[in-house]
């Protein structure tokens, strides 16, 4: 007899007892023993509780709570960690214990868009916060590329998102996949987009050159709609909820080493929640559809430098070099092709190229085609003068003898 039944019997006995029934009659009517009928006329039956059974998870709960306080609620990660500490139970008990600490996930509001094998990849940066790296606290970033068809991911970590770092990450991703996607989707990051107009998108000159070199098409998300690249957004969440919740040695080298191992054993090896197939297995269908990379020499990633244009000149190595005269040209970038040669780029294309001038007498290097020719300016530029070669020279003065002025003075006195 369970507690609910006993409680119902009690109230029936109480009702009969108040009506004047004897305990013997109550016992016969209810089909219970006389002692039980006697007991139920005096007190309500108490709910019997079983003693708490020990769980295999009990020895690990303090450790799990500590990891939850550190931000780790991923049961896959916690299960692996407590298994290493000797846990022999199932994952279900762990999930039930962790569930109250988890936040309810939001709903996906945008329909999923699928692409053909090798057709598209998506790229994004993630901010990993300030971390201890090589003895210094530095803000750390994760670069993620996700193949849209297979969901195969690439991940690496850096301490900045500068152009040269970004391009190196792209090249490493191409090498990891063994090919180049036909299209790559980005958000409107400043290393990719110089300006976005209603009917035109202007890429940065550096990235436009990079994309042309490798032959992939650049596509961009609509402003304010980052979910357009939902596959890499999901990868960011996965990295944040799985990889970042693991323990890593405090160095950039260790993080990148652990990232490659994690990609191989977890991220690309386990079935994807959407496709139900491990990304590595599904990637076999699209690997041959990628643009080949074997015959392409590695892109030479150089450091680009900004220069302000002042009076038609930029400053490089303590000398002034002229640039084409354009009123809207306020800033350019220079790209070193070697130690002695550099290119000057506006927002779209290369506009000039120079070899470093080593002549100590020259401070201005002027090209006539860059600025309007001014009378008196030397075509070869200033030979070390402090003023610009475009300053108008003074007119020549006629040389006269002193006798001329003496005669002129006598004529004025007469």
UniProtKB/TrEMBL annotation:
Entry-linked SUPFAM superfamilies: Ribonuclease H-like (SSF53098)
InterPro entries membership: HTH_IS21_transposase_type, Integrase_cat-core, IstA-like_C, RNaseH-like_sf, RNaseH_sf
Keywords: DNA recombination, DNA-binding, Transposition
Annotated PANTHER family: TRANSPOSASE (PTHR35004:SF6), TRANSPOSASE RV3428C-RELATED (PTHR35004)
Organism lineage string: Bacteria, Bacillati, Bacillota, Bacilli, Bacillales
Name of protein: IS21 family transposase
Keyword Repeat among record annotations: no
Family the UniProt entry places it in: Belongs to the transposase IS21/IS408/IS1162 family.
Occurrences of domain HTH IS21-type (ranges): 8-68
Organism from which the protein derives: Siminovitchia sediminis
Keyword DNA-binding tagged: yes
PROSITE patterns hit by this protein: HTH_IS21, INTEGRASE
Domain Integrase catalytic: 113-287
Annotated Pfam families: Mu-transpos_C_2 (PF22483), rve (PF00665)
């Amino acid at each position: 007899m369970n507690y609910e039944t006993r409680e119902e019997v009690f109230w029936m006995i109480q009702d009969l007892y108040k009506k004047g029934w004897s305990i013997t009659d109550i016992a016969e009517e209810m089909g219970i023993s006389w002692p039980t009928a006697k007991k139920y006329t005096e007190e309500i039956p108490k709910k019997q509780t079983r003693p708490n059974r020990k769980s295999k998870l009990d020895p690990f709960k303090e450790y799990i709570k500590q990891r939850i306080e550190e931000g780790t609620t991923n049961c896959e990660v916690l299960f692996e960690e407590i298994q290493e500490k000797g846990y022999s139970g199932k994952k279900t008990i762990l999930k039930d214990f962790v569930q109250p600490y988890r936040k309810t996930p939001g709903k996906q509001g945008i329909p999923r868009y699928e692409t053909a094998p090798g057709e598209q990849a998506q790229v994004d940066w993630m901010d990993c916060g300030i971390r201890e790296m090589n003895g210094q606290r530095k803000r750390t970033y994760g670069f993620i590329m996700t193949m849209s068809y297979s969901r195969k991911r690439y991940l690496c970590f850096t301490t900045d998102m500068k152009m040269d770092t970004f391009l190196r990450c792209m090249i490493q991703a191409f090498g990891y996949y063994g090919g180049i996607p036909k299209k790559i989707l980005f958000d409107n990051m400043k290393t990719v987009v110089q300006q976005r107009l209603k009917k035109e998108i202007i890429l940065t000159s550096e990235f436009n050159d990079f994309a042309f070199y490798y032959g992939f098409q650049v596509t961009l998300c609509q402003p304010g709609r980052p979910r357009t690249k939902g596959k890499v957004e999901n990868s960011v969440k996965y990295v944040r909820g799985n990889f970042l919740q693991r323990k890593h040695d405090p160095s950039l080298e260790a993080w990148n080493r652990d990232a490659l191992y994690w990609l191989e054993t977890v991220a690309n090896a386990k079935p994807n929640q959407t496709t139900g197939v491990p990304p590595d297995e599904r990637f076999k269908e699209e690997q041959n559809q990628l643009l080949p990379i074997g015959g392409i020499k590695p892109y030479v990633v150089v450091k680009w430098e900004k220069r302000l244009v002042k009076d038609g000149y930029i400053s490089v190595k303590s000398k002034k070099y002229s640039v084409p005269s354009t009123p809207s040209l306020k800033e350019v970038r220079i790209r070193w092709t070697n130690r002695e040669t550099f290119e000057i780029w506006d927002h779209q294309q290369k506009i000039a190229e120079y070899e470093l001038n080593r002549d100590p007498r020259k401070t201005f290097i002027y090209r006539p085609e860059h600025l309007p020719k001014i009378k008196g300016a030397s075509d070869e530029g200033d030979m070390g003068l402090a003023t610009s070669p475009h300053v108008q020279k003074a007119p020549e003065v006629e040389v006269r003898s002193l006798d001329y002025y003496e005669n002129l003075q006598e004529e004025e006195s007469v």
